[in-house]
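pls ignore typos typing on phone
magnesium ion + seq
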Amino acid sequence: MTAFGIDLGTTQSCVAMIDEAGRPVIVKSAIGEDTTPSVVYFESPRNVVVGRAAKNSALLDPDLVAQLVKRDMGKDVVLSFHGQRHSPETVSALILRELTRAAREQTGQDVRDVVITVPAYFGVAEREATRRAGQIAELNVLDVVAEPVAAALSYQAVSGGGSVRHLLVYDLGGGTFDTTVIRLEGDDISVICTDGVHRLGGADWDQAIADYMLSQFMAQHPGLDPRGDAWFMQDLLISAEQLKKELSVTQARRHNLRFGGAVARIELDRARIEELTADLLEQTITVTQRAIATARRSGVAGFDDVLLVGGMTRMPAVARILKERLNLDARQHDPDLAVAKGAALFALMQTVRRPGGLSAAAAEDLAARTGMTVPEVETMAARRVTTVIPRAFGVKTIDGADPVALTDPVNARQLVVHLLQANTPLPADTGPYTFHTAIENQRMIGIEVWEQAGAVASESVEENRRVGEGRLRDLPPRLPARTPLEVTFFMSETGVLSVHAVEPRSGRDVRFDLQIGGLDQAGLEKARVSVARYDVSG
Ligand code: ADP
Ligand code: MG
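k done
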């Protein structure tokens, strides 16, 4: 069965597969487009519309439309449509249902095995939420892969293997931004470091332009205030995005804004847009500089190529400022489609890489189906992709330096001890870390895992986010208070966190996978049922 690659974007999603010639190709949407807007319109309690038509409905029925949910992936956000509760995961599952439904229609193939892409800086909770969105949509998620890694795979597929090269991938999309430094060596790909901003993307440019247009309207018609009109405001945002795109290719545009019988004529040119959004672009430079500095500490002195991906990199200002400020010669690499194509390549690698290795029969079978030669399939199976932990994470503990800790541990100051630092290569092993029981005869110890939330790591609890917890049960009876326990965290290549704990005196040990995020098996089943109830169309 063919595996598909899915770029589940903040504003645009895209599906790709490997064709008979072994090349990644885009699978078109239901209406024949390369990408599908990641917008869901809850038309009725039983029907949802996903994509272009849903985006247009945002104008008429803004309260029934969900968009930009990727920005809230992994967070406890509740949305409600027709009295039905939704989460970023269930909305994403509905988008995935439409993407796979259309792909099934286009290819005539069953679409079940998929690889879904995630921004490189997505932490464990967001990655898990993405996997769950796939499961809720009844898909078999082979893996999630970082978007810049996918972009690098598709770059490598066209530029070929060879000697060691370093890439900087600058991805500015609709809602998110990240910069990643990648090392290519032969067929292998490894991430050196990654950095990004959760909420920075085209939508912020649109908002800045819309704010400006609104202020122009109100200056021309001081008696009128259209801000309370949801239709007007939505239309304004759509026009702002349209003007932004047009001004990537032309220098100036006019636009008429109508409200309450009045018309305001707005003149916009490229220079004005760049001025209005200069601070936004500047944030991408700060992050890119930080990533370059981190890479330099890992011995990366320069870049053989700087790839621009994400629709926003079509703005001429992006390449220009990277040259002006950082002396980087950046070029676009298939900005809308590279990520999905790379995901399809990664999906193929995952199918080849069966546990226990590739049998000769499987290699021949795959070769026959993809048009590759058997040695090519074997090379594919041997390829390695190494990524890093995007953000530091560790456990919340009592601050031993606080005198209260000795007498009243419950009320002592707490802090987060990071066991793994950002940009540690995966798989990663923290080595044993010593915890202590708090009271006598303690039979259970709870472990809370927290992840760095700010741009840089900090031990203060407020600058971290709780991502999951685990319990170490069945400790031997009658342990005195402050018995040491050695706890080791292990994060797999795919970012799954597991914990191993030993009580050194008895040698008793416990292993468990950490429960990340909110949904357990029962919650997953419930979400699946509620998403399956909808009729989904494009
Ligand atoms: P994501 O992966 O986050 O969904 P994309 O990479 O698809 O995002 O980029 C979408 C963003 O790119 C939108 O904000 C869109 O307005 C913007 N965009 C697309 N084409 C252009 C263009 N020609 N000029 C400027 N911005 C563009
Ligand atoms: Mg994207």
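The mean pLDDT is 90. The CA atoms of residues 86 and 438 lie 40 Å apart. more later
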